[in-house]
Write a structure and sequence with these properties.
The chain is an alpha/beta fold and about 200 residues long. It has helices spanning about 5-20, 25-30, 55-60, 65-75, 105-120, 130-135, 140-145, 175-195; strands at about 40, 45-50, 85-90, 125-130, 150-155, 155-165. Helix 1 runs antiparallel to helix 5. The radius of gyration is 16 Å and the shape is globular. It binds uracil. Uracil binds near residues 50, 56, 62, 89 and 168.
Length: about 200
């Protein structure tokens, strides 16, 4: 029997643990979990944040703290179900004091994120925030291109990518929550077009 997508993701996680991927970061922050993606392992749409926070580290799941709760609210407002999608982060250990992951840390996790995406095979990517966007669209400025569909190359495949603001950063942006909601509506239109 062929391994399911979930089996393949479990194998990837084990491979990362065995290979000590991100070990320096794990030790620096005393992180308790390698936080892999959750949700629908065969989703057409994958959401990508930057790195787990405190609650994510404790539970071993992405976007389960305050930022994740707000995202859940917006999914609900738009009649969408978070469980239909796959949600993950680039960096899979919590950085100390939630600092930004360094370029070296991102580079260490990047090939594994790519493997994760090759396993799930999304048709649309969604980035949360500046760091995740910067990984896929290095020249992209989140303040100008949030809510505007981009095209990125994932291996052999060109994929649309929707940049969203980071749900943790909305209080620093004028009308941040409204802007986030407006972008999410545009995202929903793109998702509806996929089906
Ligand atoms: N912020 C992120 O980028 N990822 C999480 O999982 C939680 C907060």
């Amino acid at each position: 029997m062929n391994p399911t997508t979930k089996d393949q993701l479990n194998t990837l996680a084990q491979h990362m643990l065995d290979g000590g991927v991100g070990l320096a970061l794990k030790n620096e922050s005393n992180a308790t979990h390698l936080v892999m993606g959750t949700g629908n392992y065969d989703a057409d749409v994958v959401f990508i944040g930057e790195a787990p926070g405190e609650e994510e580290d404790l539970q071993g799941k992405p976007f389960v703290g305050a930022a994740g709760k707000f995202v859940n609210t917006v999914f609900g407002e738009l009649g969408m179900n978070r469980d239909d999608f796959y949600i993950t982060n680039i960096v899979k250990y919590r950085p100390p004091e939630n600092r930004d992951p360094s370029p070296e840390e991102i580079a260490e996790f990047a090939p594994h994120l790519e493997s994760e995406l090759q396993i799930v095979k999304p048709r649309l990517l969604v980035t949360f925030g500046r760091i995740s966007l910067g990984h896929f669209v290095p020249e992209g400025k989140i303040k100008t291109i949030h809510g505007q569909l981009q095209r990125v190359q994932l291996g052999q495949q060109a994929l649309p990518l929707m940049p969203l603001l980071h749900p943790s950063a909305l209080r620093f942006i004028k009308n941040g929550r409204q802007v986030f909601r407006d972008d999410f509506k545009l995202l929903k239109e793109e998702i509806d077009r996929l089906t």
